[in-house]
Amino acid sequence: MRYLIILSTAxxxxxxxxxxxxxxxxxxxxxxxxxxDDYVCVGSLCVLESSIDASVGDVRPLTDGELxxxxxxxxxxxxxxxxxxxxxxxxSSEPNDSRAEASSLSGSQTVSTxxxxxxxxxxxxxxxxLTAGQQLKVVVDFKHKDGDLDAALLDTVGVKVDVSxxxxxxEELLLTSAPEAGTYIVVVYGFGDAVNEYSLKLTYD
Length: 205
Prior knowledge:
It is a single chain. By secondary structure, the protein is mainly beta. The protein has 2 domains: about 1-50, no CATH class; about 90-205, Sandwich (Jelly Rolls), CATH 2.60.120. Helix content is about 5%, strand content about 35%. It has 1 helix and 12 strands; from the N terminus they run αββββββββββββ. The protein has one helix at about 1-15; strands at about 25, 40, 45-50, 105, 110-115, 125-130, 135-140, 150-155, 160-165, 170-175, 180-190, 195-205. The strands form 3 sheets. A 5-stranded mixed β-sheet has the order 4-6-11-8-9, with no helix packed on it. The longest helix has 13 residues, at about 1-15. The radius of gyration is 18 Å and the shape is globular. Residues about 1-20 and about 55-60 have low confidence and may be disordered.
């Protein structure tokens, strides 16, 4: 049995994934696809996705099928990894890495400056209150040459409704009609270990 476990782990590291590796975490692959189907890379370990409690919407992975080929990786929006924000532009507003800690944004048209994905692996979350049927447009303004940022919009229970992962300046999210009134979450994060400063522009209709 011990040899079978070693062989299964070695296969995972090599990228040849067994169909069922069980619930015991194992190391993410260093290159290529990090984890097999149904697993997500959390920190340096592949974890069975179904074992993650997403009932409150704080943890919501983007699966491989939802990512552009140039940006294949899983993103966990849960704020579980402790980070050192000293020296970051928005250190005084951190942590805002989970739905429970999200910074609040409001107004008919909001421009919010002084934000940064900093340090590496930082995830910034912003709470936006919408009424049913309301439209929301979000522009994340940054210079791509300084660090590749991506963005996502989550609904009232944490399900992704839009994602923007371009390889140019700025990212744009659009919700044409909110299906229900409540708190929606804008998420800004770096691709890989990218860090960068940015501002937000939110337009409501």
